[in-house]
């Protein structure tokens, strides 16, 4: 399998068809932050991009004399530098860094975990750059590696399989491959549910997030009954989580209520939608008292929708 990946990766590297621009961090959950840690001690450091460039130069020189030992360090430093470049919106440089690191990991052949992780970073960069075809291929390659790793270590890598399936499904939605996207969300959900049975606190938020994504897709496919069932389950899960940590999970509760209300409005169940929008407004008011800059836009949006909803029904249905 590594030979196939290397061949596919080589053809990508020689291609100039990559598209950049349109970088919107808010559209994709989980943009990776640069890890600023010392490579030997693991301690947090004050490294910046120039420091990592100097470190990369040193690692390259060491790798010339001892590639087996130091090429992995070259790849690791390339990834950290690419993370920093991505946060500065230098997407072309970040992409080149991830690609070189991936080339190293694939050719070393014993760094499957690192190769999969780099593929995920590269896929996410291409996804937020709207280069969805390349992102889809990277996610598919990462998925193959994580599946392979999960056979010998399911506890560690089955959740990574689920995470990759969810990311891949999102790209497939953009490409209008809704049927395959739904299958991937369902498989991811099945994995997260299984892990949540033994670790509710860690994996139940992932269950709720995946149900939300699946419900959004089902709504787009006009499967309103399944979508509403999913919205209600995600809301129930988030209410349970919020009992123990209000500030962390209540924004998700509000978002779930908002999604449910939006679906009910689309089904012309205006009375139920109005009640849910009102509850969302109450929660956003409370959250805005804690952090007005973050939650005031959500409060304003909910208030505007609620005001429109309270107009005569004939006007709303005619819009």
Give an overview of the whole structure.
80% of the residues lie in helices and 0% in strands. The chain has helices at 2-13, 49-65, 67-87, 91-108, 112-128, 132-152, 154-174, 178-196, 200-220, 224-244, 246-266, 270-290, 292-309, 313-318. It has a domain at 1-13 and 35-152: Serine Threonine Protein Phosphatase 5, Tetratricopeptide repeat, CATH 1.25.40. Mean pLDDT is 86; it is low at 2-45. It contains 14 helices and no strands.
Layout of secondary structure:
Blueprint: H1 2-13, H2 49-65, H3 67-87, H4 91-108, H5 112-128, H6 132-152, H7 154-174, H8 178-196, H9 200-220, H10 224-244, H11 246-266, H12 270-290, H13 292-309, H14 313-318
Mean pLDDT: 86
Radius of gyration: 22 Å
Order of helices and strands: HHHHHHHHHHHHHH
What is the CATH architecture annotation of the domain at 1-13 and 35-152? Alpha Horseshoe
What class would the helix/strand composition place it in? mainly alpha
In CATH's first tier, which class of the domain at 1-13 and 35-152 applies? Mainly Alpha
């Amino acid at each position: 399998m590594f030979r196939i990946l290397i061949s596919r990766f080589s053809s990508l590297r020689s291609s100039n068809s990559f598209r950049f621009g349109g970088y919107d961090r808010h559209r994709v959950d989980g943009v990776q932050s640069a890890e600023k840690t010392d490579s030997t001690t693991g301690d947090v450091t004050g490294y910046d991009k120039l420091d990592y460039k100097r470190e990369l130069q040193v690692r390259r020189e060491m790798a010339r004399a001892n590639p087996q030992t130091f090429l992995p360090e070259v790849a690791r430093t390339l990834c950290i530098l690419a993370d920093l470049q991505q946060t500065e919106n230098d997407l072309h440089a970040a992409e080149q860094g991830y690609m070189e690191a991936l080339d190293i990991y694939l050719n070393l052949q014993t760094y499957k975990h690192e190769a999969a992780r780099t593929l995920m970073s590269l896929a996410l960069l291409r996804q937020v750059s709207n280069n969805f075809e390349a992102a889809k291929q990277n996610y598919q390659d990462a998925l193959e590696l994580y599946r392979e790793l999960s056979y010998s270590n399911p506890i560690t890598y089955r959740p990574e399989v689920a995470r990759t399936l969810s990311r891949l499904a999102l790209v497939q939605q953009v490409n209008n491959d809704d049927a395959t996207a739904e299958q991937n969300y369902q498989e991811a959900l099945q994995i997260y549910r299984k892990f949540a049975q033994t670790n509710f606190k860690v994996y139940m938020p992932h269950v709720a997030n995946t149900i939300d994504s699946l419900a959004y897709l089902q709504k787009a496919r006009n499967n309103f009954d399944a979508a509403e069932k999913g919205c209600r389950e995600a809301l129930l899960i988030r209410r349970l989580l919020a009992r123990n940590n209000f500030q962390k999970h209540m924004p998700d509760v509000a978002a779930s209520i908002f999604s449910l209300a939006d679906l009910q409005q689309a089904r012309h169940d205006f009375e139920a939608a109005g009640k849910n929008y009102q509850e969302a407004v109450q929660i956003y008011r409370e959250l805005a008292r804690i952090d007005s800059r973050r939650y005031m836009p959500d409060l304003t949006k909910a208030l505007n929708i609620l005001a429109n909803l309270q107009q005569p029904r004939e006007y709303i249905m005619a819009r």
